[in-house]
Amino acid sequence: MSECVKTLWAASAWVNGAWANNVSLDIDAQGLWSRITPNTPAPSHAQVLSGAVLPGMVNAHSHAFQRAFAGLAECREGDDDDFWSWRNQMYGVALKITPERIYATAKQLYTELKQGGYTHTCEFHYLHHQPSGAPYPNLIEMSLALVQAAVDTGMGLTLLPVLYERAGFTQPALRDDQRRFATDVHRVLALRDGVRAHVANQQLNNISVGVAVHSLRAARAESIAELWRAVKDDPAPIHIHIAEQTGEVDDCLAATGQRPIEWLCNGLGQGIEMDARWHLVHATHATRAEIDAVAKTGAGMVLCPSTEANLGDGLTDLPYWLEKGVPMSIGSDSHVTRDWREELRLAEYGQRLIHRKRNVLADPTRFGGSTAARLFEQAIHAGGLAAGFERWGIQVGARADWVAIETDSSLDQLVFSSPALSF
After folding, report:
1. Which of 84-88, 241-245, 258-262, 388-392 has the weakest average pLDDT?
2. 45 and 65 share a domain?
3. What pLDDT does residue 421 have?
4. Which domain holds residue 166?
5. Is residue 359 domain-shared with residue 299, that is, in the same domain?
6. So what's the pLDDT on residue 420?
7. Does the annotation mark 125 as catalytic?
8. How many angstroms separate the most distant Cα atoms in the chain?
9. Which pLDDT tens digit goes with each residue over 128-185?
10. 14-50: per-residue pLDDT in tens?
């Protein structure tokens, strides 16, 4: 057992899917939990924590720059307003963001996310170049701004540079207002390696780097396969937006004869084999056959209820995702909400509305039938995977992240009573 350098003690802590009482929590020199001992008096050398202690939540999907846009697209100017019209407005914001502005925005965001109970964020990062579309002299200029914002706020960060090379299945190039996003496989790997070198040089223990593909519509199958081969032996996570909109499903069917998740699970005709490193963001419009196929790969899905509601994406078959054992993490995406309690509440309430039943996502055989406890445990476990951790939560070997709440209310009260509690 590694040497303990700090001991915390909590009257109540969420351990192994349940509340434990009088918990001693040892932290080693690497900042990991080294021993967790319930039902023990507070050691004389321990720091006694006030309130009840929960593991920190991973925000598995973030576009930090979109925090500057949150709440500013809530007026309809024409006959229709949908995801695609919102996207056009968002591109206008993206063209104005400088490294200084993305740092300031991310610093504010990460502070807010910590107040909302998140301690680690997966940054799906595609805003790389100068407003003209030319690369910055330092290719990782925008990435470093995000890293510095995370360091300065104490937010853990998994940075995911994004492969983004075309505007759609039948559009071989990007639109002009997407010019800041342009990457190929070589550039994605250069961004990854550049940030990793910076992290190693600065000894930033809570920063890591994986890769992402924007979507099947935004990258050629051959390029996705090339990236997959390049990272085949890299344990870091791979994220991808998929099946968020019915328009994307229709376009994919027209271009390939298959639905997006179906096509990806079939390897895109390139021999790609998904595994537990893959995390499918949104996956809103998934058939049960597609969910079955994802479950067989070990991949996870990332649910973003507040953004999916804000954009009118629709509701996925979440009961079936959970039934098939697919890891489900949560993300705040466009940051119209920055509190995991709201994400879990929306996840359940959306299902109640379409099924006209209550506690749809509860499992009567586990957690005493608690809806919030099941969703919380799902999000904690899968969030760690989405960020690239082998272990996450209050368990030996996991990073010693925690949040304290002002009361030992049940998780159901915490999530479903819209409490005005601070972390």
Report:
1. 84-88
2. no
3. 53
4. 57-392
5. yes
6. 57
7. no
8. 68
9. 999 999 999 999 999 999 999 999 999 999 999 999 999 999 999 999 999 999 999 9
10. 998 999 999 999 999 999 999 999 999 999 999 999 9
Rounded CA-CA distance 356/420 in Å is 27
Q: Are residues 80 and 90 in the same domain?
A: yes
- Do 168 and 20 lie in one domain? The reply is no
Q: Which of 120, 241, 282, 381 is catalytic?
A: 282
Residue with the two structure tokens 């999907």? 61
* Four-CA torsion 206, 16, 408, 332, nearest 10 degrees: 50
For residue 97, which of 139, 72, 67 has the smallest C-alpha distance? 67
Note whether 246 and 367 are same-domain residues: yes
Q: Residue 31 and residue 9: Cα distance in Å, rounded?
A: 16
Looking at the fold, whether 422 and 316 belong to one and the same domain comes out as no
Catalytic choice (28, 313, 317, 333): 333
For 418, the token pair is 């819209």
Same domain, 189 and 255: yes
Instruction: Respond yes or no: is residue 193 known to be catalytic.
Output: no
Which CA distances in Å does 260 have to 129, 255, 268? 28, 10, 9
370 and 269 in a single domain? The answer is yes
What's the domain count of the chain?
Answer: 2
CATH number, position 112: 3.20.20.140
pTM above 0.70, yes or no: yes
Residue 31 to residue 29: CA distance in whole angstroms:
5
Give pLDDT, residue 231. Answer: 98
Which tens digit of pLDDT belongs to each residue from 299-332?
A: 999 999 999 999 999 999 999 999 999 999 999 9
Structure tokens that stand for 44 in this block: 């004389």
